[in-house]
Write a structure and sequence with these properties.
Layout (H helix, E strand, L loop, with lengths): L6 H24 L5 H20 L2 H18 L7 H22 L9 H11 L16 H12 L3 E9 L6 H15 E7 L2 H5 L6 E8 L3 H9 L4 E8 L5 H4 L5 H9 L26 H28 L2 H24 L1 E3 L1 H4 L2 H12 L3 E6 L4 E3 H22 L3 H6 L6 E10 L2 E8 L6 H10 L5 H4 L4 H5 L23 H10 L3 E7 L3 E9 L4 E9 L2 E6 L3 E7 L5 E3 L2 E6 L2 E7 H4 L11 E8 L2 E7 L1 E9 L13 E6 L5 E5 L1 H4 L2
Parallel strand pairs: 6-8, 13-22, 17-19
Antiparallel strand pairs: 1-3, 1-4, 2-3, 5-7, 8-9, 9-11, 10-11, 12-13, 12-20, 14-18, 15-16, 16-17, 18-19, 21-22
Helix pairs in contact: 1-2, 1-4, 2-3, 3-4, 3-5, 4-5, 6-11, 12-13, 15-16, 16-21
Length: about 650
């Protein structure tokens, strides 16, 4: 069988199972009395083992098999849970993730796991897990009645004993393959041990099934023996009484039950009993297909804008009506496509509890990570980029924010620190707040480091507010760490955070209270592909400003413009804000601004500025296109868009204009 066609599904489902194991292990570590977590971990590990064996990834299958032994010993109260057990299981998950990642990158998924396997074996001290031998199968009244009904229809009934090789490693997987052969030949009435016990490998090396079929014994024997690691098969015909002979022997209860029971085989999932059809109506879609769909729709948005403009020029009522209807339908289609691309931030958040746990152990700290709003959704293009910045912020909070347990106790705090990661929607944005109850930011320490590194001069340092001082930690190469470690202190991190978030059209702000903690707040747009923008005119050129960066528009008289230290400023609702001129910034020729200024009031976090343009054109949804690799780093331009008349408008990066 060609397994390559199933590889993508295997990788995706393996990652889901590993994430579930990670999550349940974290919960179990906090409450080791609740064996429900262990059962959930066991199920995921068992499924992963079966999939790995089927796909031929032996190292994966071997390691998950040894994990199962430990988990089974725990849930059967044969093994006390302690730090060594949990650490070994976490190490195993790390190794499994490395192997799955190798497979996803085209590798063979092999990894030297001998030492880890030995560690797991030492933990259970090679004690065999309680097994259930395949005893003689019981023919109760219900089974006999069912067999008699099938006999009247001309079917044969066989008792089949299957003996697997003693050295068989994946017994449940081999049993599944045998059941698959039997399912194709007929219907399985009963098994010993039960299907559940076989699935969980609670049998020595043999099992018995009762099969109803019209196949011959010889053909059944040959088919089962084709399954690898089957040592022997014994098939015996089951003597069955005719239904007329059974009528007097059947109790009323069994007779009623027979009306509802149908002869059925096990389901096609590994050694599971048949379940009712699922009502789940979701399907897996390759993300490349969604990207292609989005690209096609972006072209449709451009053509829609062109049609709207043509409609206005021709002033034809029928055309106007048709274009209006098309715009409405395409708007609904846009909403559906964008929603299809939305992904919960939990896909990023899920990896953080393990990371914080490990960092806490490395640093000798006690830290609890609280996650709120993990179901908040973002476009996958934003999700793909936001992971690394959050990792930097978390590592910063663990290393610089949370104090050592003894220091916390001396300051009247709980020795266990808390980091809270919260995501929520607000308008067309998603906010992610990272808050800790640690030491906060020391203003003087930050200023001293900034002065030492030449980031600011002494005169400037005297005028900075607390928030301006806090923002100095985003400067390139800035670090307050006294020692270089694997966690932080190498002068990289928070500048990357700021640059990445701003490149996504977002912003990050800091608030801190020394001695009590800090909060980093990230603001992000819901999507990056299609955005609402304000089109403005500058001479013969047109520019687009994302509405997410705009507070409002205003008309300003020249007499209202003031000058402070050579900078134009205006009084905007009681606050003095800088005034920028797009004509001067981009050297736009033949700009005509008249006797009053058209001003766009922009925001970047808590900062505000005004931008002078020639005139406003209006609001429009635009498709953001990259300038490509041949135009990197163009000042204050984040991309371009094609307008309805076919002309290109540059998209202004408002964050780059506000200092």
């Amino acid at each position: 069988m060609d397994m390559n066609q199933y590889l993508e599904v295997f990788i995706e489902e393996s990652r889901e199972h590993l994430q579930n194991v990670n999550d349940q292990l974290m919960r179990f570590e906090k409450n080791t009395d609740d064996l429900g977590y262990v059962n959930e971990i066991f199920r995921s590990a068992h499924t992963l083992k079966g999939m790995s064996a089927t796909m031929g990834f032996d190292d994966l299958a071997q390691l998950t098999h040894k994990m199962e032994n430990v988990l089974d010993a725990v849930r059967n109260h044969q093994l006390d849970v302690h730090t060594e057990v949990l650490d070994a299981l976490f190490e195993s998950v790390d190794a499994l993730e490395i192997m799955v990642q190798s497979i996803s990158e085209g590798g063979d998924g092999q990894l030297d796991v001998k030492l880890l396997v030995q560690k797991l074996q030492r933990i259970v001290a090679e004690e065999p897990v309680a097994q259930h031998a395949a005893s003689s199968i019981e023919y109760d009244e219900l089974v006999q009645t069912l067999l008699s009904q099938t006999a009247d229809q001309g079917f044969n009934a066989f008792e089949i004993t299957v003996q697997l090789e003693r050295t068989c490693l994946l017994k449940a997987a081999r049993a599944y393959m045998v059941f698959d052969v039997l399912e194709q030949a007929g219907d399985v009435i009963k098994s010993a041990p039960t299907v559940q016990d076989i699935e969980q490998e609670k049998f020595e090396s043999s099992f018995i099934v009762i099969l109803v079929t019209n196949e011959s014994q010889e053909k059944l024997q040959a088919s089962i023996m084709e399954v690898s690691e089957v040592e022997s098969v014994k098939i015996a015909a089951v003597p069955v009484k005719k239904e007329t002979e059974m009528e007097e022997l059947v109790s009323p209860e069994v007779a009623a039950a027979i009306q509802e029971v149908t002869v059925s085989a096990p389901s096609k999932s590994p050694v599971e009993e048949k379940r009712q059809p699922s009502n789940n109506k979701t399907i897996r879609v390759n993300i490349d297909r969604l990207d292609s769909l989005m690209n096609l729709f972006e072209e449709l948005v451009i053509d829609r804008g062109r049609l709207e403009q043509i409609s206005k020029e021709l002033n034809n009522s029928e055309l106007d009506e048709t274009v209006e209807r098309m715009s409405r339908i395409s708007g609904d289609l846009q909403t559906i496509i964008l929603n299809m691309r939305m992904v919960p931030v939990e896909t990023v958040f899920n990896r953080f509890p393990r990371m914080v746990r490990q960092l806490s152990k490395d640093l000798g700290k006690q830290i609890e990570l609280q996650i709120v709003g993990a179901d908040t959704e973002l476009d996958r293009t934003v999700i793909d980029e936001i992971g690394d910045p959050l990792v930097h912020l978390l590592r910063n909070a663990v290393d610089h924010g949370i104090e050592m347990p003894q220091a916390r106790l001396e300051n009247g705090k709980n020795e266990k620190g808390t980091i809270r990661l919260k995501a929520y929607h607000s308008g067309n944005h998603v906010f992610i707040d990272l808050e800790d109850d640690g030491a906060g930011i020391n203003r003087e320490k930050v200023l001293r480091k900034a002065l030492d590194r030449g980031i600011i001069d002494g005169k400037t340092a005297e005028t900075l507010t607390d928030k301006q001082v806090y923002e100095l930690i985003f400067a390139s190469g800035f670090s307050t760490a006294e020692q270089i470690s694997d966690v932080s202190g190498r002068g990289v991190g928070l500048d990357v955070v700021k640059n990445t978030i701003e490149s996504l059209g977002g912003s990050v702000t800091i608030d801190s209270n020394e001695g009590y903690g800090s909060r980093f707040s990230i603001q992000l747009p819901l999507t990056l592909s299609i955005i609402s923008a304000l089109l403005v005119q500058m001479s013969e050129e047109r520019y687009a400003l994302p509405l997410s960066s705009i507070i409002e528009t205003a008309i300003v008289q020249p007499k209202e413009v003031m000058h402070v230290h050579g900078q134009k400023v205006i009084d905007f609702r009681g606050a003095i804000i800088p005034l920028l001129d797009l004509k001067e910034l981009f050297t736009v020729p033949n700009s005509v601004q008249g006797d009053r200024y058209s001003v766009v009031i922009m925001k970047k976090g808590e900062k505000t500025a005004g931008l002078i343009v020639d005139s406003f054109i209006g609001q429009q949804e635009i498709v953001l296109k990259s300038l490509g690799h041949y135009l990197p780093g163009v000042f204050a331009i984040s991309g371009a868009t094609i307008l309805g008349d076919g002309q290109v408008a540059l998209i202004i990066d408002c964050n780059a204009l506000i200092k």
